[in-house]
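Collaborator request, handled under Task 6.
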Amino acid sequence: MTVLTYNKADEFLSKVEHFLMKNEALNNLPLGISYRLANEGNHYQGEPFLGYKQRNDGEIHYALMRTPPHNWILAVEQDLSYEDVESFLTYIDENHLPFPGLIGSKQSVERIAERWKEKTGSPYQIKMEQKVFRLDEVEDIPISNGDLQIAQPEHQEIATKWLNLFGEEAGEPTLSESPEDTIKRMIQNQSLRLWVVDGEPVSMANATRPTKNGITLGPVYTPNEHKRKGYASSLVAKLSQSLLNEGYSFTSLYTDLNNPTSNKIYQRIGYKSIGDSIVVQFEERG
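Structure tokens returned to the collaborator:
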């Protein structure tokens, strides 16, 4: 199996951007990270892996990337065959690449995880089953009392607390930077939005990873004491409309299939499912 790899994100994008743009919203994660690397440089805990497998006809079969310490990201146009899976894992093994986990289309990732377990004896956990949603137009929904506001430096403490709670509840892997630094960067970039009621923040959402035509929302978090009051749906609806007004053609987000309430909320706002995604985590080989 031949995998072409690149040290620079702009070189990587020059080869794979057209492939990923065939389904821009579904590939928001690899596209958004690649653009960030190209525009802002590497802020991760090690050199990124940026590569793709080329078919015999010269077309891209799939793209593969990792930004340490995060999981591998697999972007496919068609799910991998068992032969593809075998060559994929042989490449990982022969090049002694760390393989902590993988995110991508459900069928391909599950095939890879099962075969990796057979080959290495390394068990895996399904950390999250997700749907990828896309919104092109916001539906009219009831809006709760409160206002959409851009997070300010004085919100650093509460937003950091919420990001920690989000990570605990979602079982998110280790961040490449501290939660404090993550929130500080979001505030500096003016990407973090709050729903504020009588001067008190009650929910937050971040607009992240812009691509050519879209942008992704995440994380979206409301603490327990403010849930079931319509704050998150109001925040997401107003933020989504604001981003469309800025010129984005669509917004996208990931949802946890184990949280049917949030899935229904997003669909009422106008988000439509465009694909499945799964996150698996591997245990270290003994």
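The cover message to the collaborator said: "The two ends are 27 Å apart (CA to CA). The helical segments are 9-20, 28-40, 82-94, 106-120, 156-170, 179-189, 231-245, 260-269. Please let us know whether this matches your experimental observations."
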